[in-house]
Amino acid sequence: MKAISCHLLPIKPPTAAPLPRLLPPPTHSPSHPSKATSITSRAISISAPSIPALDTNASDDAVSAFWDYQFLFVSQRAETADPVPLRLVDGALPHGFPSGTYYLTGPGLFSDDHGSTVHPLDGHGYLRSFRIDAAAGRVDFAARYVETEAQAEERDRDTGEWRFTHRGPFSVLKGGNMVGNTKVMKNVANTSVLRWGGRLFCLWEGGDPYEIEPRSLETVGRFDLAAGKRIKAGDDDGTVRAKLLDVAARVLKPLLYGVFKMPPKRWLSHYKIDVKRNRLLIMSCNAEDMLLPRSNFTIFEYDSNFKLLQSQEFNIPDHLMIHDWAFTDSHYILFGNRIKLDIAGSMTALCGFSPMISALSVNPSKTTCPIYLLPRFEDTKSRDWRVPIEAPSQMWVLHTGNAFEEKYENGDLHIQIQASTCSYQWFNFQKMFGYDWQTGKLDPSMMNLKRGQETLLPHLVNVSIKLDVDGNCQDCSVDNLAEWSKPTDFPVINQEFSGGRNTYVYAASSSGSRQALPHFPFDTVVKMNTATKATHTWSTGRRRFIGEPVFIPKAGGGGEDEGFLLVVEYAVSTQRCYLVILDPKLIGKRNALVARFEVPRHLNFPLGFHGFWAQTSSSERHVASSPTRNLELSHECIGAT
Ligand SMILES: [Fe+2]
Known about the structure:
The protein is about 10% helix and about 35% strand. The chain is mainly beta. It is globular, with a radius of gyration of 24 Å.
């Protein structure tokens, strides 16, 4: 058995305090890390044979907190294509729980076998699935790497050895070819997951989605969303500036597409589902937009059979970086996170001495936040969409939970957007998750600012925009979404209410009870009532953390908060991962926990990014119950959250 070191684990703690008697978490690896075809649950073992559980009474100081933080980013090299039943350790699957699969994606690997580490955003996508059979009262777990082209190149299929050859936008190589390496963009398909039209996809911010077989999690291949689709070009303003930018774009394209092999279209990892119209909304921008003070966004709308219903292209004369966005009945909504080219950073990045992302930095030149209201339909009565509404607050928008609009009798329009934002002062491309590319280490202090600075960290806001009948902005205000001041992110709602007025928003937050990790990682699910501003919480407990929650509506409908919340719990204290089911109506009360399922220790996985709940359709139930089931059968389109 080959023991593989975990290069993310620090040699020295961040303080002068002595290390406690804590063994570092293991890097998990298959006992025979050979061929991908040998992926079975039985073939997996842990490289470190006897890792004792961490002492649950360990003092809550900076050192143990530092180690706890590393646990969330431990590589998991093992995969399991054969579903593994999870042990129920608390509660039970309740009557009426819908059967379906919770897919969760995120990075799985943070270090190779030749001395290179990567930023969590550059970690190869590791797709986890929790298949819930409510009738049988069981949950089956499986996990596999997305077999991207970069993964095929960087993992030796015969030996299981990893060697990073691509730099990735957030990392530098140490053991590989650093200088002159033009393999920059590494589509690791690690950011979000989508089930639509009976198909499953893993998405990444800078390239095509990868299609995955929903049951086996086997990678089907890269999926060209825009293949053969005619894109309706948006208006260009025809100014001299626009023409000069056209010339600059023509110069940059051969460099970006040819030398750096960047795809012309960058698909955003965040998509939207318009439940009312049963449509998938997805957005792309151009590769050269990263370097130009002009942003080209194309928004596609698909029906449930992946038939393209419409697409629109918008050229916005600003240098923006959009991660998440929103829609209403008649608008697409973009918050303008402003960026600028960093010349010095560009030089070192091109030479391979710093991550490519250091070519960009946030641009806090304005004290306001531009919000672009883009007309969704041809008959949308719109103001000049090139002119943004300026929100009276400088916000870097991370995620949006929902947006909706309501028309008054006199024709005025009221738009509200619920989003998580942080400050420009805090947001730093190179240091997200506390990753230091110079040392290859993770330092949680970046995510845990001192008392008084926590207002810079992510929190939830409600942006309210009032337009008169001619589209003139009468008012734009930004308020806290609820009475809750702790750092909070990953806002989600009952998707049955997406695009319409909702009352409740759920998110991941921090209880603040951990002295050395007061703000992140999150340990609390917060339920916010946007009407009353009341807030209720459920916390995991000592030395346990959570990821993004997902709301599952109650079968057959019901009130907005009738259903279940799924969230993964990372129990550092016992080195275990759990799937937790909560009752949203009982959050804030004593018995919100419905059930907790334990993932076997050898299948522990690192912190996930985004997930998706896919309810089992009637055709899938038929297939699953058939002894001669054919997994290649196409599935019906399913409801989505
Ligand atoms: Fe995201």
